[in-house]
């Protein structure tokens, strides 16, 4: 590939991921719906099965699953730099917004804003679209529908930091036992322009930092090292998406008196009102502690484990997913991911968004715009925000 062709791919990845970073409201589950629409259906950068397998892989790894999916798609499209650009494009808008919020708008309450409520209703439509689309592809028979419904039920009845990964592991074991012989399929070749040597280096660096940073923190009493260690460990040990990182960060930062509890919760509330990854909350926390430098350190530290893990595992992913046993496990995992999407559609997305009949009416109209009128997501997001303002005015 010529340098000009590479440059075009890098620019394309950056522009598309930046658009998603500016318009992907609703949290990590909704992000997967936005990604599916943009990368699979519209641009066809990868097929449905490969996308579902990449989602399953990201669910297995600690860190922000939606960011890892985006990084993985960037790597497959345009190499290591493509992954970096995909991360920058998707993360930078929310990171900048939250850092500015920390520096300039310390006491701004977004909790009752009408447009925020409208965006929550947009998330209902986006996730419902994702459940419908992925369910049709990944749960075509009653066995997989059963796995999905059981996964949804367990996720709603057992809500803990370990429930999601436990459901995925159990579904993988069930898939291994049920589907390895009868559902083995030929898969399209997915090019991953990252060598296994580089992948191994990334995995070793992940472990070295996880083990070495606490040691370095005790040896060198530098505040920046302590902050990097706290955010890196939080990003390394969280399963289940952005919301699960909240208690980890609170324990690391509030308990250490680096930030007040009220400031911490105010920033978390603001994070719900902007597009992009929930892990960008770290940008707010870092800026509260040490301005722009703190925001940069915290953001890099919390996302670095996710980046190292996804780049480290991708070179082995395509060959692994072709093995019959792995294919069977992935069939079960993919069905459970549909179930987790279904569970999340109800709680927390539906329960925190649909509180009166007019909310349901708006969600239904937005769903129709997305699924049947094929409107671009950014138009639906804008319509939802404006409708939220009108609902707030009417119901005052």
Automatic annotation (TrEMBL):
Q: Which PANTHER family match?
A: CHROMATE ION TRANSPORTER (EUROFUNG) (PTHR33567)
Keyword Iron-sulfur recorded = no
Q: Which family does it belong to?
A: Belongs to the chromate ion transporter (CHR) (TC 2.A.51) family.
Q: What protein does this entry describe? A: Chromate transporter
Which topology term describes how it sits in the membrane? Multi-pass membrane protein
Organism encoding this protein: Paenibacillus harenae
Q: Does the keyword Transmembrane apply?
A: yes
Keyword set for this entry? Cell membrane, Membrane, Transmembrane, Transmembrane helix
What InterPro entries would the database entry show?
Chr_Tranpt_l_chain, Chromate_transpt
Transmembrane regions listed in the UniProt entry: 84-108, 114-133, 145-178, 198-219, 292-317, 329-348, 354-373
Question: Which compartment or compartments is the protein found in?
Answer: Cell membrane
């Amino acid at each position: 590939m010529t340098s000009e062709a590479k440059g075009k791919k890098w620019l394309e990845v950056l522009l598309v991921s930046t658009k998603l970073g500016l318009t992907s409201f609703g949290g990590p589950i909704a992000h997967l719906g936005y990604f599916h629409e943009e990368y699979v259906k519209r641009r066809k950068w990868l097929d449905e099965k490969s996308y579902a397998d990449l989602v399953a892989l990201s669910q297995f790894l600690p860190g922000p699953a939606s960011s890892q999916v985006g990084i993985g798609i960037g790597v497959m499209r345009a190499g290591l730099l493509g992954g970096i650009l995909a991360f920058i494009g998707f993360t930078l808008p929310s990171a900048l917004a939250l850092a500015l919020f920390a520096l300039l708008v310390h006491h701004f309450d977004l909790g009752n804003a009408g447009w925020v409520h409208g965006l929550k209703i947009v998330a209902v439509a986006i996730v419902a679209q994702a459940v419908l689309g992925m369910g049709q592809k990944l749960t075509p028979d009653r066995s997989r529908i059963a796995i999905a419904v059981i996964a949804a039920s367990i996720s709603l009845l057992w809500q803990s930091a370990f429930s999601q990964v436990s459901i995925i592991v159990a579904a993988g074991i069930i898939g291994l036992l049920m589907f390895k012989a009868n559902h083995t399929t030929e898969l399209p070749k997915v090019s991953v322009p990252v060598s296994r040597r580089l992948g191994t280096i990334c995995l070793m660096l992940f472990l070295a930092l996880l083990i070495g940073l606490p040691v370095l923190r005790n040896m060198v009493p530098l505040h920046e090292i302590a902050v990097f260690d706290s955010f890196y460990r939080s990003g390394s040990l969280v399963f289940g998406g952005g919301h699960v990182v909240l208690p980890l960060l609170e324990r690391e930062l509030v308990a250490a008196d680096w930030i007040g509890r009220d400031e911490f919760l105010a920033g978390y509330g603001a994070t719900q009102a902007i597009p992009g990854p929930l892990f960008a909350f770290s940008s707010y926390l870092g800026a509260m502690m040490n301005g722009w430098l703190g925001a940069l350190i915290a953001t890099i530290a919390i996302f670095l484990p996710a980046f190292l893990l996804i780049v480290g595992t991708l070179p082995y992913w395509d060959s692994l997913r072709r093995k019959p046993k792995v294919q069977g496990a992935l069939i079960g995992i993919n069905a459970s991911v549909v179930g987790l999407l279904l569970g999340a559609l109800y709680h927390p997305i539906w329960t925190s968004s649909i509180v009166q009949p007019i909310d349901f009416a708006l969600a239904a109209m937005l769903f129709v715009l997305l699924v049947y009128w094929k409107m671009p997501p950014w138009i639906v997001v804008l319509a939802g925000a404006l409708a939220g303002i009108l609902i707030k005015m009417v119901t005052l």
